[in-house]
Specification:
five-stranded mixed beta sheet, 19% strand, 3 helices, alpha+beta
């Protein structure tokens, strides 16, 4: 195994996080949400995860900006793993609920969930 990769993964806490959220934002060709709206959602997500001490050197939640999650309806779109829960309308208000109810408490926010495909081990 490459020690440089192991070191990078260790610094990011990749082997310790419980959930991973991908957010569709800053698309090359925005279709489901204006670029400004998706970027505002991304900035909100980053800030709130940091404020709640969910991100950082030993994160509980890992976040990734996705150019496009290919749903292209009622965006921004997010997906949370390992549950494989897909969410629509992920502006700041929806993300706040996803953070508290799903990322922290482990309860899917059914109001905004439109698909589920959990990872199987």
């Amino acid at each position: 195994m490459n020690t440089e990769l192991q070191s990078a993964a260790g610094k990011l806490g990749i082997e310790k996080f419980r959930r991973h959220i991908f957010l569709c934002t800053d698309a090359t060709e925005p279709k489901c949400s204006p670029r400004e709206k998706s970027l505002a959602a991304w900035e909100f997500l980053k800030r709130r995860l940091a404020e709640l001490n969910l991100a950082g050197p030993q994160p509980l939640v890992y976040r990734t900006k996705a150019n496009c999650l290919r749903v292209c309806v009622r965006g921004p779109i997010a997906v949370v793993y390992p549950e494989g829960t897909w969410y629509h309308s992920c502006g700041p208000e929806t993300l706040e609920r996803i953070i508290h109810e799903h990322l922290i408490a482990g309860k899917i926010v059914e109001e905004f969930c439109f698909a589920k495909n959990p990872l199987s081990v």
